[in-house]
Every structure is written in structure tokens, then in C-alpha cells.
Amino acid sequence: MIKINLLPREYQKKKFTLSLDKNAIWVVTGGVLVLFMLAVYTIFFQVLPASSLANKIEADKMTAQNYAKEIKFVNELNAKKDLILTRMNTIEELDNNRDVWVYIISDISSRVTDYLWLTRFGGAAMEKEKPADKADKDKQAPAPSKTAIEGRAFSLNSLATFLVRLKKSPYLQNIDLVSISLEEDKGDDMAESYESYHFVIQCDLVMVGSEAAQTEENVPADKLAAGSEF
Fold first, then answer.
1. What is the β-pairing status of strands 193-205 and 172-186?
2. Helix boundaries (H) for 43-153
3. Which residues contact 87 (CB under 8 A, 6 or more apart)?
4. Which is nearest to 164 in space by CA: 150, 156, 101?
5. Burial 87-114, CB ≥16 within 10 A → b, else e
6. Can you tell me the distance from the alpha carbon of 84 to that of 52, in angstroms, rounded to the nearest whole number?
7. DSSP letter string over 171-224?
8. Which residues pair with 150 in a beta bridge?
9. Residue 163 to residue 147: CA distance in whole angstroms
10. What is the pLDDT, as a whole number, of residue 134?
11. Measured distance CA(141)–CA(212) in Å, rounded
12. Are 156 and 164 spatial neighbours (Cβ–Cβ below 8 Å)?
């Protein structure tokens, strides 16, 4: 069967034809190759390692759960070890300078007057001396640390005498009476009450070492009466 198209040429249906030159073909081929290489890189260097890492994390979690008791036991041992080391360091510091503390306590107790007693003596712990510091002990004075002395006295005269004696101590500097108040206190049997002066003294504690031991010049006599220094 023969078909004849009698329409004018401009109205006749044209056939679609696609024609590409060689440069366009190379560009399209290169783009496809680049996309393929990016897909391969993503799969082998990102997707697969991430999946392997997730599996490894899950395996480590399972291992940690299996050894949970052992891990807890090890942590408890480490905590006990740290506690023991802290106590050992504290004991070592105290033992390293215990002769100095003996002299300090003896010096302060020897200066307590009649009708007066101490309730608290607090000060910062001494730092351990380094070998270089020991060699230069005579050249460089130790740094003082703040401390407080609290106590009670039945008379202001006793307290004044105690302050005068403390100023002669080689271990105390910048002695300052920061507070004093008359307070009522119960006796041991809770039946009788008495009034006494509660006082707080702040001062600088100087670790001068055992060579600065008490002397007859620094320590008051045992039988000095309160107020005899005035």
C-alpha cells in the first residue's frame, strides 16, 4: 500500500535525528567514568570501613559486658591504690618533719598561762623539703602559713600574758587577736555553769626546723605566774 503525503513541505512531519560529534561523546564518557569512580571510592573507603567499625564497636561492647565484673574489680583496686598512696604521702610528709612539729607543739604548750587552755590549733600541712631547699635552709627562710589558735581563759590577764609569750616564739609571726567574747559554759556535770573568755588568735606559722629548738631565752619558766611579764 502506497501512501502519498500531499501536504506542503513545511507542514510535513519531520523525523527526529540525534547527531553527536566525537568531543561530546568523549565528554559524556568521561563524566560516566568519574561518577563510577566516585561510587567505587564511596563504597570501599567509606561505607565498608564504617560498617566494619560498627561491627567492631558492637564486639567491644559485648567483650566489655562479658568482663564487667573484672573491670569493676580492677577499678576498685585502682581506687584503693590511690587512697593508700594519698595516705602514704600524708604520713611521709608528717614523718619527714615530725621533729619540727614536736618543737612547735612543745613551744606553744610551754607558753600557756594559768587559768587558760587551748581548744584548737590549726595550720596548713608543711610542704616536703627538696634536697636543694635543705642545702639552702640557712640562707632562705621558709614561707609562713596562716594558722589559728583558739582557747578559753578565766581572766584577761592570763590571755594578755599568753599573747606576750607567743610573740617570743620563733615559730609564730604576725600574731593578732581577732576575737574575744565572754561566754557561759556548762560544767561536766551540766549542773553548774561558769563564764570564760573565748578567744581566737591568728598568726603565721614558720617552719624553722629542729635547729631552732627552745632555749631558756625563748621559753618562759615553768612557774612564771600570769602577768609576770608586765
1. antiparallel
2. 48-66, 68-96, 98-110, 131-135
3. none
4. 156
5. eeeeeeeeeebeebeebbeebbeebbbb
6. 43
7. TEEEEEEEEEEEEEEE-TTSS-EEEEEEEEEEEEE----GGG---TTTSPPTTP
8. 120, 200
9. 15
10. 45
11. 12
12. no
| Residue whose C-alpha cell is 501512501 | 3
Q: What does pTM read for this prediction?
A: 0.47
Judge contact between 222 and 113, C-beta under 8 A.
Answer: no
Closest CA to 113 of 179, 175, 167, 159: 159
208: left (phi over 0), alpha (psi -120 to 50) or beta: alpha
What is the layout of strands, in order, in the sheet containing 193-205?
116-123, 145-153, 193-205, 172-186
Q: What is the pLDDT of residues 170-216, one digit of tens each?
A: 999 999 999 999 988 776 655 677 889 999 999 998 876 544 444 44
Look up residue 17 and give its DSSP letter.
Answer: -
Give which of 226, 223, 215 is closest to 171, Cα–Cα.
215
- For 98-212, the fitting CATH number among 3.30.2450, 3.40.50, 3.30.70, 2.40.160 is 3.30.70
Q: Are 203 and 145 in contact (CB under 8 A)?
A: no
Grid cell locating 201: 588568735
pLDDT single digits (tens) 81-139: 999 998 888 777 667 667 788 888 899 999 999 999 999 987 543 443 444 444 454 44
* Helix (H) / strand (E) containing 6: none
